[in-house]
């Protein structure tokens, strides 16, 4: 069978070793999956991108060291950058899951506001620290559940559903709080932001914990694998026996839960629950995810990339503040970075087969 | 009428591994309905694509109205007056009928569409087609299929069209709609427009056709046959006996293999029906058996498969798997029970193109590699690697991207997915579509080995020799009904083609 023969030579021609060595290579590769971990750490597809973002961060560090030598490279400033990044970082973890799964969540900022207000009402505060934490997480997850059910079982477009949640969750937050800031009266709650371990605020540890758990779930569990599958090809996922609707719902619950955590952090940081919390966080989170190399169409992405995206944004903000540059210029720069990142993404997609 | 409007001669089109067209001649006169016949894979679609400028031939000449022409782009073909109407109508659902008819060449002045003119012109065209009742302002997405087809024809006529190619236009139409379509075609030909008509239904060809050209293996085997008088056996014999070598694995010896005990019943389908798709379909599949469904597009074959799999919900009837009723309309239940599907559209329905071979292979069996959701990736990769080697998938490295694989190897990956899931019934929908000849033989061997290992296989293919060569038992479907069932050894290719093409007596 000449066609077959040529097929065989054609294939093995790409890889040099002869037949049985070939199989031995494969067997070894299968057994030795461990050494691959270092590469996988940065997300299989996004390695190069992540390295690029680290380069950008280094570059920003050099710019900072040159333009603000006295203040940028101090421990307190670096801790400051990390603390600033912590709340939006947690939101971005949830957003990364949703976007890899082929959706979008515009309601994250509003869910933060709602969870923050709900957990700081007088009634909730009377239950003490536990009640406040629990209600923030539950409200976030509950709002996410509503999003998820409407999207997967109601067959509505994620953009529309989460846009509606953006408007109504903030409206509910305003209604609950009468548009007034609610002071946190439980001292142990405020301690969440005040406590420092080894000189680093608790908030940074919370971000780290959420990131580690998020990374493990995305890259080491069936849940994560199915998220990639559903985002990449929902029809194929369905025909492979995956319960796409249930999974999609869970993705939005996860995003809502992250918003609940972020609400706790933000409320502790400001010592108030307010319906104005978390405004435009959806834009920052989506921008960070995109800069991090996650496809907006789903199916491919990296959590590490998203976090580096948050890092780049936060560092730029920090640099502008240290150099006394205005917020408008800062925003223009951020916009330019988003466009540059997406252009880069298109290029790298065109280059890879 | 003597000099042809279109004369294609010696057309050759090569694809990697396949000579899709290997010397096709076709001449079409103005005002005639020229029927193009041939089995699936004979080259009809490729020929149409060459004619409509979508593919460039590697050799051969095309004469149009006496002049040599080249058709480098679809626009060039359109300018000459060649229009094609495909099965999947390429209309924009959200636009109105008139906007669709004039899409790309709107009546506009300074970029502003003149809606009044547009609607008037569209209405005029629809009247010419005898379908003045279709409102020009109506949104196309809300029209039935037959109406959309008329809009497509109107769009073709909105250019100065002299030849229209219709690719199985009747496959998705009801009987009275077909009669209507024929009336439109007669009016077109009366005004001098030539129609190239593709259909598998001989009865339609008898009714509407003037002359017939038969393709086989990418060659013209007969041309200029009279559509009304050429006897059916002659046409069928021209289409059959394809010279492409199908290498089928031997069937197990029926006396040796099944002596000890009757093989277990895997699947039992009782009176299954879906309105407008298929009716009263009953059959069984035993362990170790390959059952083939033969039929044309629109015969309900893929729909039956998807209903068994739970991707569609039946209106009547039931599906028993291992004697247990399956929850209707639930893919999750079917997969959990041990049914696997290799769907027709591999890329859009089966593969995760952004991921590795390993992730594609293990997609359905993930729970068996996880404890409390935590994946054992080493074992997963090792098992995926073992499967790819067992199926001789190339390249064998399971970490490679699935995107880089050939069609045959991608299909093997889909089969491997279900092997890993340890499925007891495998549904194969057009398993060799887009697979080159060498890899086909391998797939046939693989499917037979699967059956020998005790898996029940339900096979759908539009290639009759494939069904006959591979299956043990064959069900012939026509218009949603089982019209014949027999042992594959007792059926000849021309019998099946006869049954499948006979057409309805309702017209």
Question: Would you mind describing this structure in some detail?
Answer:
The complex is a heterodimer of chains A (353) and B (507). With 353 residues, chain A is an all-alpha fold. Chain A has a single domain, classed as Orthogonal Bundle (ABC transporter involved in vitamin B12 uptake, BtuC), CATH 1.10.3470. Helices cover 75% and strands 2% of the residues of chain A. In chain A, strands 1-4 form a two-stranded antiparallel sheet. In chain A, strands 2-3 form a two-stranded antiparallel sheet. In chain A, a hairpin with a 2-residue loop joins β2 and β3. Chain B has three domains: 234 residues, Rossmann fold (3-Layer(aba) Sandwich); 159 residues, Rossmann fold (3-Layer(aba) Sandwich); 68 residues, no CATH class. In chain B, the strands form six sheets. Chain B has a six-stranded mixed sheet, with helices on both faces. Chain B has a six-stranded mixed sheet with strand order 18-21-22-15-23-24, sandwiched between helices. The model of chain B has no long low-confidence stretch (mean pLDDT 85). The chains are: A mainly alpha (353), B alpha/beta (507).
Give me the secondary-structure topology:
The complex is a heterodimer of chains A (353) and B (507).
Chain A: H1 2-14, H2 19-31, H3 37-40, H4 47-67, H5 75-100, H6 108-119, H7 122-125, H8 128-152, H9 158-177, E1 182-183, H10 187-194, E2 196-197, E3 200-201, H11 202-220, H12 222-232, H13 234-239, H14 244-270, E4 272-273, H15 281-291, H16 303-322, H17 327-351
Antiparallel strand pairs in A: 1-4, 2-3
Helix pairs in contact in A: 4-16, 5-11, 5-12, 5-14, 5-15, 5-16, 6-8, 6-9, 6-14, 8-9, 8-14, 10-14, 11-12, 12-14, 15-16, 15-17
Chain B: E1 6-15, E2 18-28, E3 33-37, H1 44-51, E4 59-64, E5 67-69, H2 74-80, E6 82-85, H3 97-101, E7 108-109, E8 112-113, H4 115-128, H5 145-158, E9 163-167, H6 175-190, E10 194-198, H7 202-208, E11 211-216, E12 219-226, H8 232-239, H9 254-257, E13 265-274, E14 278-286, E15 290-294, H10 301-308, E16 316-321, E17 324-325, H11 331-337, E18 339-342, H12 346-349, H13 357-361, E19 370-371, E20 374-375, H14 377-390, H15 407-420, E21 425-429, H16 437-452, E22 456-461, H17 464-470, E23 473-478, E24 481-487, H18 493-501
Parallel strand pairs in B: 3-10, 3-11, 6-9, 9-10, 15-22, 15-23, 18-21, 21-22
Antiparallel strand pairs in B: 1-2, 1-4, 4-5, 7-8, 11-12, 13-14, 13-16, 16-17, 19-20, 23-24
